[in-house]
Amino acid sequence: MIKLENISMKFNLGIEATSFKETFIALFNKKKRIKKNDNEFWALKNVSFEVQQGEVIGLIGSNGAGKSTLLKVVSGVMKPTKGKVTVNGIISPMIELGAGFDAELTARENVYLNGAILGYSKKFIEEKYQEIVEFSELKDFMEVPVKNFSSGMTAKLAFSIATIVNPEILIVDEILSVGDIKFQEKSKKKMMDMIKGGTTVLYVSHTLDSIRELCTKVIWLEHGEIQMIGKPNEVCDAYYKKQLG
Amino acid sequence: MIKNMANNFKKYSFLMQQLISRDFKVKYKRSILGVLWSILQPVLMMTVMAIVFSQMFKFKVEGVNYLVYLMTGLIMFNYFSEATSNAMTSVVYNFTLINKIYIPKYIFPIAKCLFVGINFLLTLIPWFAIILLSYIGLGEYACPINLWYILIPYILLCFFMFTLGIGLIVSCVSVFLRDMFYIYSIILTIWNYLTPIFYSLEILPPTLQTIFKYNPLYLFITGVRSIVLYGQRPSFVQLGSMFIVGLITMIIGLFVFKKKQDKFIYYV
To answer: Rounded mean pLDDT of chain B?
Structure first.
C-alpha cells in the first residue's frame, strides 16, 4: 500500500535570510558569510518502512522530529530529496483541518469549495451534502460566512467534509481533539468505523493513550531518523521512558 | 504527458470552477451593484480618459472614432494587466493550501486568467454598445460592422494564450523573488505607456515605430482595431504571428512552471 525506501528530505534554512542587505554585507565581510553546509537541515534521514492495507500506524516523536514532514512526503505535498515513495490508493489528507476554507464564503459554499480541493466530484458533494451537515451539527449555520464561526465550529465542519469519503489511506495529524466532548467522541467513533472498514491510517499524535488504543504499529521518529518500530505498547513505553525517565 | 495533463484537467475542472465562482462571490460581496460593476467600470474609466485625452490634450487619431479606438485598447490592456497580476499573486496567496494538500499548482494562475477573462467578456457588452452608438452620432465617425468580426474570437484566443503564458511566468518568478510584486507593477506601468492605447503609433518618429511594433500587445490590439475601426481583415502574416506569439508564450510559461513547481514548497 505505502512503501518508503530510503527517504531523505533536505531543507535549506538559509532561504529566508537572503535579503539584499545581508548579501551585500556578506560580500565584504567574510565572517558573516554563511557557509552553505551550515544551512542544510535534514528533516528526514534514510527513512524506510512499509505499510499494508488496514494497518493503523502511529507516529510519535518530539516536536520537530520530522513527523509532519513524513506525512507531507506520503501525501505528495513534498517530493523527497532522495529515495522513493510508492503509494497505492486514494489518499484523504486531514493535515490541519480547514486549510481550504475561504472566510468570506458561507459554510454551504465552503463545503463545495473544500470538497473540490479534496478532489471530490460535484455529484458526490451534492449527494453527501445532507450527511455532512448532519454530522457537523451546524444545520442552522450553513448560510453564515465562516469568518463568523468559532474555531470549534470551523473544525467540526472541516472534519465532517474530510471524513465523508471512505478513503483507502487516511492521514491524520493530531485532530481528534476537535470540538466539544460530544463531538470528540463522535469523531473518534467515525475513525474507528473507518479503520474497521479496512482504511489504512497514518496517525500523528502526542496523546500516547489514543495511540495505544487505535494503532496496530507505532513508529518513533527522532531527529529525522527512525528510532524504533514495533508494537504500540513497547514503543510507547520506550518513548515515554526516554522522554521523562 | 499530454494524456496525463488531460486527465488531470478533467479531474480538477470542478476545483477550477469552484475557484472561479469563489472569486466572483468574494469580489462582489456587499457591493450593491454587484456584477454590474464589471460593465460600469470600464465605461466610466473610458469616459474619464476620453475627456482627459480628447478634450484636454487634444489627442486624435485621423479618420476613426476616438472613443472606440481608446476603449478597445483600454479594455484589452486592462485584461492583460489584471489577469497577469492576479495570476502572479495567486500561487503565493494559496501557499497555506499548497503546503497542506497536493493540488496541481498551475490551477491557480489558470483559474485567475479565466476569472478575469469572464469579466473581460462582460466588458465587451458596453464596448459593443459604444460601437452601435457611433452609428447614431457618438464621436465623429461611425464604425462599420462587418464580416471580419468573426475573426475577433480567434484574436482573443491567441491573446488569452499570451496572457496565460506571461501569468504563469510571473507567478513562478514571484515565488522565488517576492520583490517581483513591486517590480511587475512598474513593468506594467511602463508597458502601458509603450502600448498605443490612447495615442496612435503615427505620432512617433519612424525608428521608434518599428521598435514599438514588436510589442505583442500592440499586435493583438491593432488586430481588433483594424476590424472594428476600419472594417479591414488583419493580414495573414499578422493573424499567423498572433497564433505563434500566443502559443510560444504559453508553452514557455507551462514549461517554466512545470520545471520549477516542485521547488515552490521550500519558499513558503
So the answer is: 90
Residues of A within 8 A of B99 (CB-CB) are 72, 77, 99
Q: How confident is the model over A21-65, as pLDDT tens digits?
A: 666 666 666 665 555 556 788 889 999 999 988 889 999 988 888
Give CATH for domain A2-90+167-244: 3.40.50.300
Residue of B nearest to A71 (CA): B100
What's the rounded Cα separation, in Å, for the pair A98 and A57? 23
Each residue's pLDDT tens digit, A116-145 = 888 888 899 999 999 999 998 899 999 999
Distance set, CA B48 to CA B73, B74, B86, B107, B158 (Å): 14, 12, 24, 36, 29
Q: Output the pLDDT for position A198.
A: 84
Give the ranges where B102-235 is alpha helix by DSSP (H).
107-133, 152-176, 180-194, 206-212, 216-230
DSSP state of A106: B
Which residue has cell 481588433? Answer: B224
Range with the lowest mean pLDDT among A158-162, B72-76, B126-130? A158-162
Bridge partners of residue A8, in order along the sequence: A82
> Which residues sit opposite A204 in a β-bridge?
A59, A173
Smallest Cβ distance to B18: which of A79, A99, A113? A113
pLDDT tens per residue, range B171-224: 999 999 889 999 999 999 999 999 999 888 888 888 889 899 899 999 999 999
Other beta carbons within 10 angstroms of residue A226's beta carbon come to 18
Residues 6+ apart with CB under 8 A from B86: B112, B113, B115, B116, B167
Searching chain A, which residue's CA lies closest to the CA of residue B102?
Answer: A77
Cα A101 from Cα A80, distance rounded (Å): 28
Interface of A with B (CB under 8 A): 11-12, 15, 72, 75-79, 93, 95-96, 99-100, 102, 104-105, 109, 112-113, 116-122
For residue A188, give the H/E element and its range.
Answer: helix A181-196
The span from the CA of A229 to the CA of A58, in Å, is 10
- Is residue B117 classed as helix, strand or coil in its secondary structure? helix
CB B261 within 8 Å of CB B186:
no
- For residue B175, list chain A residues with Cβ-Cβ distance below 8 A: none
Report pLDDT for A37.
57
Q: Show me where the domains of chain A are located.
A: 2-90+167-244, 99-165
pLDDT of residue B59: 79
Q: What ipTM was predicted for this assembly?
A: 0.79
